[in-house]
Amino acid sequence: MYVKSVSLDDHEFIIKRQHVLMSRMIKAILRGLGQFAENEIKEVSFRVNSSHVLAKVHACPSYVVGYTNNSTEIPEFPTAPKIAGELLMAANFPDC
Amino acid sequence: MASFPPRVNEKEIVRSRTIGELLAPAAPFDKKCGRENWTVAFAPDGSYFAWSQGHRTVKLVPWSQCLKNFLLHGTKNITNSSSLRLSRQNSDGGQKNKPREHIIDCGDIVWSLAFGSSVPEKQSRCVNIEWHRFRFGQDQLLLATGLNNGRIKIWDVYTGKLLLNLVDHTEVVRDLTFAPDGSLILVSASRDKTLRVWDLKDDGNMMKVLRGHQNWVYSCAFSPDSSMLCSVGASKAVFLWNMDKYTMIRKLEGHHHDVVACDFSPDGALLATASYDTRVYIWDPHNGDILMEFGHLFPPPTPIFAGGANDRWVRSVSFSHDGLHVASLADDKMVRFWRIDEDYPVQVAPLSNGLCCAFSTDGSVLAAGTHDGSVYFWATPRQVPSLQHLCRMSIRRVMPTQEVQELPIPSKVLEFLSYRI
């Protein structure tokens, strides 16, 4: 099941619900939106963040889930220094 | 006397996985002094591992082959004589072929080792990089060895040849460190209470003497952007030096006994120091505040015991490359792995007579050297870093704490960024 998150510049990201639910805060927001129907896509808007920052924030949970409790080498998650400031603020909200 | 805080159940702390060990070879007849492994070091690009075996020899082991041997033959890897090869004078282009083992005879007891590379470490803020590239045709990897008589010998790692002999210290050279920006600036710390700065691109010309310590200097470390040097020594000394002007920035007060080891975090925002007062302190080097304290003896000793013999001296500390973990070696026969946000260790490993420890270049292995010349390797606790931590490291590489405090961001994020959480 999927959740749609929209950025400042109207870029829409469709992400798996389990990934987004890793953050307690977003879980609480989604619960407030009511029950999910089978294929219905709920929308969470991150309208303060631009799309390139939001893309990194959403790529993070698959990186975490993929490499946690895995004995292979953990590769670096690429974060460009130029967006580091905005990315920190964006990542603080879902706390990931 | 307990080794862990009272609220921690000792049995719940995970034991680290051993990867391997290198045992020192048997003592040759004519060498009188014992095997003392005062230091182990990894090359900045991860290609070599240097091991001072005692008896005045240093062995350079190609690291990937060493790891493969450990995995193939189980945990023991006793070096046999057929694989030893003496260093050669005229070696062919070693860089293109498989890297070779070298045994280097240094002529005197080796107290310190450091690898230096003319290639700057990735992600360091490089200064004057074009000037460095003009001087040499190919990338150089050097090994500096600090000896008992105060001399420093510089060897070429690929060929095992002696390149330079630096003579100026009058006492044991206790620690050596190269600047991580590839400029081949070497700083040596000695028991003659001084630190000397050498420029190896200028034929080993000594550029500066840093005076200020009142007693033995035990260790030194460069910050990752090469702008600061930390030197620690006897009589509780922790000094920070500005390496552009070679002046002292500040003294960090807080330890109760000799401070014997120091290491910066990979973003330069944290400084870890280990002392004979049973504690490792994590400082903010930009303003001198103590952010965390890792204790090795509980209840913590009173200042009188902390300042004397308390059987729990911490000998070495090392930051891992993910910026989240710290390893410490103490006299209670344990290696501890800490996370910077918890005040009890996340993993421990048994080790007697440990003297020094170092993380491998990729951060996956911790090597620890012991008093009898052997080296032991463990897998470090790996943890997927949070996105916030990665951003914090990116930002702190270029921004000191004072600038961080002025950012217009919410206070919780500000505290996180200053490592105060």
Automatic annotation (TrEMBL), chain A:
Its taxonomic path starts at: Eukaryota, Metazoa, Chordata, Craniata, Vertebrata
- Tell me the InterPro entries matching this sequence: ELC1, SKP1-like, SKP1/BTB/POZ_sf
| Gene Ontology biological-process annotations | ubiquitin-dependent protein catabolic process
The subcellular localization recorded is: Nucleus
Protein name, UniProt field: Elongin-C
**What highest taxon heads this organism's lineage?**
Eukaryota
**GO CC terms:** nucleus
- Homology family: Belongs to the SKP1 family.
Sorted keywords for this record are: Nucleus
From TrEMBL, chain B:
Which keywords does UniProt give here? Repeat, Ubl conjugation pathway, WD repeat
Q: Start-end of the WD repeats?
A: 136-165, 166-208, 210-251, 252-293, 314-348, 358-378
Q: State the GO CC annotations.
A: cytoplasm
Q: Which GO terms describe its biological process?
A: intracellular signal transduction; protein aggregate center assembly; protein K27-linked ubiquitination
**Family matches, as Gene3D superfamilies:** SOCS box, YVTN repeat-like/Quinoprotein amine dehydrogenase
**Domain spans labelled SOCS box:** 377-421
Question: Which SMART domains does this entry report, sorted A to Z?
Answer: SOCS, SOCS_box, WD40
Involved pathway(s): Protein modification; protein ubiquitination
Under the heading PANTHER family, the entry gives:
WD REPEAT AND SOCS BOX-CONTAINING PROTEIN 1 (PTHR15622:SF12), WD40 REPEAT PROTEIN (PTHR15622)
**Protein name listed in UniProt:** WD repeat and SOCS box-containing protein 1
Q: Which organism was this protein described from?
A: Vulpes vulpes
Instruction: Tell me the lineage of the source organism.
Output: Eukaryota, Metazoa, Chordata, Craniata, Vertebrata
